[in-house]
Amino acid sequence: MRIGIDARILAYRRGGIAGYVSRLLPALASLDLETDYRVLRSWRDRARGEAGANFHRGTLWTPCHHRLERWTLGVEVTRFRLDLLHSPDFIPPAFGACRFVITVHDLNFLYYPQFLTADSRRYYNRQIRWAVRRANHILADSEATRADLIRLLEVPPEKVTTVHLAADPAFRPLPASRVETALARYGLRRGYLLFVGTLEPRKNLPGLLTAYRILLDRGETDAPLVIVGGRGWLYDEVFARVEELGLTGRVRFLPNIPDTDLPALYNGAVLLTTPSFYEGFGLPALEAMACGTPVVVSNQGSLPEVVGEAGVQVDPEEPEAIAEGLAAVLGQPDLQARLREAGPARAGRFTWEETARRTLAVYHRVLAHR
Q1: What is the pTM of this model?
Q2: Pair 182, 119 in one domain
Q3: Within a 10 A sphere around the Cβ of 92, how many other Cβ atoms?
Q4: What confidence tens digit (pLDDT) does each residue in 254-276 have?
């Protein structure tokens, strides 16, 4: 059998779906030594080598998220004579003789259309309904996303399989000396509040900033808030809110930090907060827990499913509620200690080996029904 994996996203961005692809490939390679895999990369991708001896590069010219993507992709993949194509960014080709598996990470754009630019909103709305009909099977990052697909897009339940993501093994408790060395590069000391993610509306950074201002005014913390992540879209309100709330000098923005420094930044934080309105999975929360860092997360979307009892859940619609959740962790050493112990145990239940195993089982099931 010959299986293709659309890896074009690796040439365009870091984290998110690109992180999913970059971790799935080696995990599949460690499990499946026989199948002929074609890793379909953008012509812009300068990566050398593939995950295993049975993984071979294929080059594509079609850019990600182009309005003609599904048709030009159909033309391009034909020459690889695939039995199955997995599209981790959910857009399969418009035609082709092979079977199609897609991954849908979230349906944020259906819940919160105002959180996207007009162009992005049009693109996703045009593509998603067609894509879920076109696919032979759909992978969802969480039970929450699976339920959304069934309810909002009327996808038959038997057509969707939940395959959880996992934290990379690099995310773990680190020796103090390694943490201090990394923090020194950014002028940080242990004990800051941390947010990790792209600056975009669904992440609810304005709400977090308001909650942080509440904590400062009450004297419940004087630690800085560190925001790690690049600018996505519609992010101007974030910087406007910093000015409006008088938080200049209190909030540190760290865009474009190396992935190798992230574990140390988690380790150095007193807590991580992810107060998003919607997450399809919420990988930063899992990464933080794997490092033994307490987490305060939204009680919406997939985050309760991922965090369980190993974190504090808050209403993202209410900055006061976010502030209360943060204050509970900051002010209760016993709670901090419990979360530091519970986090790694909870995160250990999610592994990339299991992600790959369940993904491979779906490939085999789809191929068996050709």
Answers
A1: 0.91
A2: no
A3: 28
A4: 998 898 999 999 999 999 999 99
In this predicted structure, the answer to whether residue 116 has a pLDDT above a threshold of 70 is no
- Does residue 171 lie within any of the structural domains? no
Same domain, 55 and 201: no
User: For 66-70, 144-148, 226-230, which range has the lowest pLDDT when averaged over its residues?
Assistant: 66-70
Same domain flag for 186 and 319: yes
Supply the range of the domain harboring residue 245.
Answer: 176-347
For the domain that residue 123 is a member of, what is the CATH number? 3.40.50.2000
